[in-house]
Amino acid sequence: MKLNELKSVAKAIDNITPKGIEWIKQFGYDGHSIWKPECVPFDDLGLDEKQQKRLIQTIKSDTSDPKSTIYKDGQVVKELTGVYSLSLLQAIATNLGVGDAGGFLFGRGSRARVLTDAILQTLEPK
């Protein structure tokens, strides 16, 4: 890793607050949810305004498969605007220099688990 990359990672680590770490521990292993933007503590997770705007997206439901169908309150919806949990984890991991973790996995839950573990190992080395 080059010096400027190390400085960037060090800054990213400093920007994640204890509240952000606790949020990752509680919700990080989820690779399926779409969060209401107001429920995501972007600042505590060290994500700047540009990243926040990029993460908030309208996700369309694909009803051809239950795995790609979006449900809200038990009902199918055509689309939902929010923050896809796996994209959120990927953004945090990329900021910390571990964005390639889990790239070889296809399942959303498996990728979320590997990304979360890499994030937490970076923030709280044993």
Describe the structure.
- The chain is α+β, with helices and mostly antiparallel strands and 126 residues long.
- It has one domain (3-123).
- Helix content is 45%, strand content 15%.
- It has five helices and five strands, in the order ααβαββββαα.
- It has helices at residues 3-15, 18-27, 49-55, 85-95, 108-123, and strands at residues 34-35, 56-60, 70-72, 75-77, 79-84.
- The strands form two sheets. A three-stranded antiparallel beta sheet has the order 1-5-2. The chain has a two-stranded antiparallel sheet with strand order 3-4.
- Helix 4 (85-95) runs parallel beside helix 5 (108-123).
- The longest helix has 16 residues, at 108-123.
Layout of helices and strands, plus pairs?
Layout: H1 3-15, H2 18-27, E1 34-35, H3 49-55, E2 56-60, E3 70-72, E4 75-77, E5 79-84, H4 85-95, H5 108-123
Antiparallel strand pairs: 1-5, 2-5, 3-4
